[in-house]
Amino acid sequence: HYAFFHLVAADSRAPRDGKFIEKLGYYNPNTHPPQIHFNHERVLYWLQNGAQPTETVRSLLSREGILLKLHLWRKGKTPEEIEAAYQAWKAQKAAKAAS
């Protein structure tokens, strides 16, 4: 069996493997580099409406730049400013990985 995780929005009172509200992405740590795919718009929607990620999910969201977008949104930045900052962060991350 391989580890493979789905990121979901769920009620905190629901069991871990129980009912969920919406599937938001996945994380596959078995590949190199690990595959991480999130629906950025829906993840941001849930975070903006009070969803609380677990520590592990929070680190994955940070690695993907979603928490950067949320931080900028909370500071009142426009969608264009947020996207520009995200693209700059992504380019910086790619340059750092290449070196």
Furnish the topology, listing elements before pairings:
Elements: E1 5-9, E2 22-28, E3 35-38, H1 40-48, H2 55-64, H3 66-74, H4 79-98
Helix pairs in contact: 1-3, 3-4
The main sheet comes to: 3 strands, antiparallel
Report the helical percentage: 40-55%
Q: What is the radius of gyration computed over CA atoms, rounded to a whole number of angstroms?
A: 15 Å
Q: What is the total tally of β strands?
A: 3
Measured by DSSP, the beta-strand proportion falls in 15-25%
| Count of distinct structural domains | 1
Structural class given helices, strands, pairing?
alpha+beta
Mean pLDDT: 90
**CATH topology heading:** S16 Ribosomal Protein, Chain: A
The CATH superfamily name is Ribosomal protein S16
- Separation of the first and last Cα atoms: 35 Å
Strand order in space, largest sheet: 1-2-3
CATH architecture heading: 2-Layer Sandwich
CATH class: Alpha Beta
Q: Pick out the low-confidence regions.
A: none
- Please, how many helices? 4
Order of helices and strands: EEEHHHH
What is the global morphology? flat
Compact overview of the structure:
48% of the residues lie in helices and 16% in strands.
Structural write-up:
The chain has 99 residues and is of the alpha+beta class. It has a single domain (5-98), classed as S16 Ribosomal Protein, Chain: A (2-Layer Sandwich). The chain is 48% helix and 16% strand. It has four helices and three strands, in the order βββαααα. It has helices at residues 40-48, 55-64, 66-74, 79-98, and strands spanning 5-9, 22-28, 35-38. The protein has a three-stranded antiparallel β-sheet, with helices on one face. The relative contact order is 0.11.
